[in-house]
Backbone:
């Protein structure tokens, strides 16, 4: 009986070690993935410097509670869409996007961060209404047909 009990104990210990190894491996993979995303975001921020608002972060796939908690943590002003899926955090004077991305305390949220790119208009020579040629780049300007869900914008 002791031989059988010993085999059961050894088998149980091996199963527990296997479960621990799987959990550790998945944790390490998750940590590696977060660091990879964080490094990509930091690289993008440095490469695109000057094309985005350095005091603003766009959050995607968020909720009001998550966005509010993050705004409080960063000391930022929060603006969020009615459906609550997108938010904009306006950072404090002494903080910028790169410093937030480089802060390891924010790495769990980095994958939801996006840069708030600035829109720049180009010159457009619309000519006269009868100068439109199908397939050309010249077109008659039109009004966009959409609704904005944030009354402040």
Residues:
């Amino acid at each position: 009986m002791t031989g059988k009990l010993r085999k059961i104990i050894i088998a149980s210990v091996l199963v527990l070690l296997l479960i621990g190894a799987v959990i550790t491996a998945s944790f390490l993979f998750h940590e590696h993935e977060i660091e990879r995303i964080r490094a990509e975001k930091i690289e993008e921020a440095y490469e695109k410097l000057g094309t985005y608002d350095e005091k603003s972060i766009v959050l995607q796939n968020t909720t009001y509670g998550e966005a509010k908690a993050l705004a409080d943590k960063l000391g930022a002003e929060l603006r969020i869409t009615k459906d609550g899926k997108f938010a904009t955090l306006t950072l404090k004077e002494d903080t910028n996007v790169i410093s937030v991305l480089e802060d390891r305390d924010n790495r769990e949220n980095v994958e939801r961060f996006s840069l708030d790119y600035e829109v720049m208009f180009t010159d457009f020579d619309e000519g006269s209404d009868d100068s439109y040629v199908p397939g050309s780049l010249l077109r008659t300007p039109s009004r966009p047909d959409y609704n904005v869900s944030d009354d402040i914008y």
Summary: Helices lie at 2-47, 64-74, 97-102. The beta strands are 52-60, 77-80, 86-90, 113-117. The CA atoms of residues 55 and 96 lie 5 Å apart.
